[in-house]
Amino acid sequence: MVQTLEKGSVLNKESSSIVYDTQQLNLWYGTHHALKNINLQIKENEVTAIIGPSGCGKSTYIKTLNRMVELVPTVKTSGKILYRERNIFDADYGVEELRTKVGMVFQKPNPFPKSIYDNIAYGPRIHGIKNKKILDEIVEKSLRGAAIWDEVKDRLTTNAYSLSGGQQQRICIARCLAIEPDVILMDEPTSALDPISTLKVEELIQELKKEYSIIIVTHNMQQAARISDKTAFFLNGEVVEFDDTDVIFSTPADKRTEDYISGRFG
Amino acid sequence: MAQKQSSDQPSVQELIAKASNKKRKKIIEKLIPIILFLIASVSVLTTFGIIGTLITETVIFFSRIPVLDFIFGTEWFPFANTEPQYGILALIAGTLKVTFIAVIVAVPFGIGSAIFLSEYASDNVRRIIKPILEVLAGIPTIVYGFFALTFVTPLLQQIIPELKIFNALSPGIVVGIMILPMIASLSEDAMSAVPSSIREGALAMGSTKLEVALKVVLPAALSGIIASVVLAVSRAIGETMIVSLAGGSTPSFDLDVTGSIQTMTAYIVQVSSGDAGYGTTIYYSIYSVGFTLFLFTLVMNIIAHVISKKYREEY
Ligand SMILES: Nc1ncnc2c1ncn2[C@@H]1O[C@H](COP(=O)(O)OP(=O)(O)OP(=O)(O)O)[C@@H](O)[C@H]1O
Ligand SMILES: [Mg+2]
Question: Which residues contact A155 (CB under 8 A, 6 or more apart)?
Fold first, then answer.
């Protein structure tokens, strides 16, 4: 409810508000300094792409945004990440609350070993929605939202693992949409998919952008150029450049960005 | 770098050709499966031998005692001088009472421990607790029997004064303790086998740890957990020493857990360690009881097998 109100109140896209404000973020895995002085502002209803070579800290960064990175016991952080103006590292900030607002789609599809219906209904159910009729509506709406309703509507009770990889990934996206999050984090969501499924997910992201803020990690330059509004280039745990995607791909300010994008890196 | 074919050194392929003794390898390859088959046959043949003996002796028993009296009779008085009774239901009642109590004890504690070990315990804690569970599983059952008779029964008598020295409750609880590690350990294996990517998916939706454990991991591992319970039940049914020592030797067909009972296994022990003469009806009766026991555990094992096959979650 609150979320819809917030969204509705933003009428003018130009002045859209800041969802995530990362300030001087540092992160260590034990002694390994994986993120160094990150400062990034992510805006509402935009697709922000994160690109950079393997091991530069892209996954680490987006897993920090929903604090999933803390599953690694050796992780230590410093700095601030303001989500909707509140620091997510505050001691009284519940991770469950944060993750209810910030959904995540993983690199490898990871549906639950349950029926398609139960996969989608999982989120609403754990957050207290029990009414069967409301759940039915949520399931249909989410599956339509993830552009997979027509493919699965006749077999909602079959195990999600009986679907193809591309279908499973869209089920995971639908599962994420079911609790109508504010932000969706995606870590290389199409890297395990064939070109056609990839295209479908890309079209979907364009569609979802109208209602959600999306942060996507990708190794595919064309993909970043096609679907994102903003692009951040990471290198060795630092943000080298962050700008409009058009600018990054046509006239990057930093030589290293240009080298990476044109494939001349390393 | 390494040259493939230098003039002074033979190539690896040449060395292989020289070294390998093709003929001998062929013979060994032919012989090995035959030898292994013979070794495997030993256990299969033994099993058939035991089942064969059980059946032939049981058939002799049923030539003296009508099958229906055996299956539906509720009195078991083989030692009665005038009219011995062979109603197996009285022994089955003893076995089932103990098994039922054992399951009530072992399932919640076993699955609870499994959830703790797989979802909550740190690696260090797991490294300490798992071996302790295994030690618990390795204690000889005679020790458990003594424990039931000399410790658990007196303790229970403080709470339930009408509890007899020999009863179903105390051995039931102790058999439960005995099968607990088996359920905990096998269930923990099943839960640990659930990929962590699925847990992460649930956590990323804002689930608490408990929700992940109960609503995602437990259902995903359910077939393994049920199979572990069924196997444990099968062990409880076949358990002998604990019930012989602490259960008594008075078969009775009722639901009372405070009085003396006799299980199928305890009866076999009683007769085998007594002096029932070869060829007497009592002698043959232990085969009929043994056969019944065998059917019980066989059915449980088949159920466990079917469950773990049929309900195997795909992930
Ligand atoms: N659990 C971990 N423990 C220790 N170090 C880690 C862990 N996860 C990642 N790292 C290290 O942190 C750095 C950043 O890793 P990260 O996974 O964020 O890279 P990435 O940019 O997502 O790479 P890729 O494109 O290959 O997915 C790497 O040097 C990696 O070795
Ligand atoms: Mg990564």
Answer: A116
- B204 vs A: CB within 8 A: yes
Is B202 in the A-facing interface, judged by CB distances under 8 Å?
A: yes
Helix, strand, coil in percent for chain A, rounding step 5: 40, 25, 35
Three-state SS for A231? strand
| Contacts for A132 with CB less than 8 Å, ≥ 6 apart | none
User: Which among B197, B216, B313 is the nearest to A108, CB-wise?
Assistant: B197
What letters, b where the CB count within 10 A reaches 16 and e where it falls short, cover B243-257? bbbbbbbebbbeeeb
- For B80-134, the pLDDT digits (tens) are 888 899 999 999 999 999 999 999 999 999 999 999 999 999 889 999 998 898 8
Å from CA of B91 to ligand 2 middle: 63
The four Cα atoms A82, A86, A89, A91 give a dihedral, to 10 degrees, of 170
Helix axes A116-126, A165-177, angle to 10 degrees: 20
Q: Directed axis angle between helix B281-310 and helix B89-115, to 10°?
A: 30
Residue B12: CB atoms within 10 A of its CB come to: 11
**Chain A residues with CB-CB distance to B208 below 8 A:** 96
Cβ–Cβ < 8 Å for B106, B187: no
> Is A174 in the B-facing interface, judged by CB distances under 8 Å?
no
Count Cα neighbours of A131 within 13 Å in the Cβ-side half-sphere: 4
Strands in chain A per DSSP E: 18-29, 32-43, 47-51, 75-83, 86-87, 102-105, 183-187, 213-217, 230-235, 238-244
CA separation (Å) from B234 to A97, B226, B262?
45, 12, 18
* Whole-number pLDDT of residue A100: 95
Q: Which residues of B touch A179 (CB under 8 A)?
A: 205-206
Question: Are residues A52 and A260 in contact, defined by beta-carbon separation less than 8 angstroms?
Answer: yes
Residue of A110, A113, A122 with shortest CB distance to B200: A110
Residue of B191, B199, B205, B223 to mutate, interface with A, max A Cβ within 10 Å = B205
All domains of chain A, ordered by start, with CATH?
47-66+97-261 (3.40.50.300)
Chain A partners of B216 at a C-beta cutoff of 8 Å? 112, 122
Q: What protein residues have CB closer than 5 angstroms to ion ligand 2?
A: A 59
Measured in residues, chain B has a length of 315
Q: Please choose, from the candidates B57, B46, B55, the residue with its C-alpha nearest in 3D space to the C-alpha of residue B271.
A: B57
Reading chain A (266 residues) residue by residue, the pLDDT tens digits are 444 444 444 444 444 589 999 999 999 999 999 999 999 999 999 999 999 999 999 999 999 999 999 999 999 999 999 999 999 999 999 999 999 999 999 999 999 999 999 999 999 999 999 999 999 999 999 999 888 999 999 999 999 999 998 899 999 999 999 999 999 999 999 987 888 888 888 998 998 999 999 999 999 999 999 999 999 999 999 999 999 999 999 999 999 999 999 886 64
Cβ atoms B106, B176 nearer than 8 A: yes
